[in-house]
Amino acid sequence: KMDDDDDIPQLSSHTLAALQEFYLEQQQREGMKTSQGFNQYSIGSIEEDWQLSQFWYSDETASCLAKEAVLAAGKGGRIACISAPSVYQKLKEQNGEDFSVCILEYDRRFSVYGEEFIFYDYNHPLDLPENLLPHSFDIVIADPPYLSEECLQKTAETIKYLTKGKILLCTGAVMEEQAAKHLGVKMCKFIPKHSRNLANEFRCYVNYASGLD
């Protein structure tokens, strides 16, 4: 079992111990997962919390968005995932040396990812750690937790602060006008799917020539 740790040298032994304890508890809760071996970055390794309006993407959608992010970021690129943990998990699963990634998320369970986790509350869009420099990410992927103009507008402040230019936004189809207004993004043909069907139609929006059309 020890060999598994070799893949994640960037985590300190303290974080690793916490991670292992966390997974142990989780595996005991869901005994069925232990038999298949367990990947800390797989979608669903942290369960959805509907009170926080969390809905994970399907595996296929997360893969597609992660692939797009890597292409858009370019070699050695930096990717920020705002409230889009399933894309973050997919990016980490790829184990790419060609890019780095941060997750900005309100749900502190994601702090198991160590230094890449940044606590984020959209109500305080610029309350960010000092080491997150303005315009330091090649692409920002964001999935605001609520379909409201207020939530989009505040998340947009964070996106505009962090990105060098490229934006990939996932939100409801009903938000098309607000997305254009606050971020200058246009709807893509690609239709994101969630692991559970949501009542609201979801779409992706970009402000650059993406592979999602």
UniProtKB/TrEMBL annotation:
Pfam families: N6-adenineMlase
A GO BP annotation: methylation
GO terms for MF: nucleic acid binding; protein-lysine N-methyltransferase activity
Entry GO CC: cytoplasm
Major localization listed first in the record, in broad terms: cytoplasm
Reactions performed catalytically: L-lysyl-[protein] + 3 S-adenosyl-L-methionine = N(6),N(6),N(6)-trimethyl-L-lysyl-[protein] + 3 S-adenosyl-L-homocysteine + 3 H(+)
InterPro entries (alphabetical): DNA_methylase_N6_adenine_CS, Efm5/EEF1AKMT1, Mlase_EEF1AKMT1/ZCCHC4, SAM-dependent_MTases_sf
Key words of the record: Cytoplasm, Methyltransferase, Transferase
Classification via PROSITE patterns: N6_MTASE (PS00092)
UniProt-annotated location(s): Cytoplasm
PANTHER family hit by this protein: EEF1A LYSINE METHYLTRANSFERASE 1 (PTHR13200)
Entry protein name: EFMT1 methyltransferase
Naturally occurring in which organism (per UniProt): Dicaeum eximium
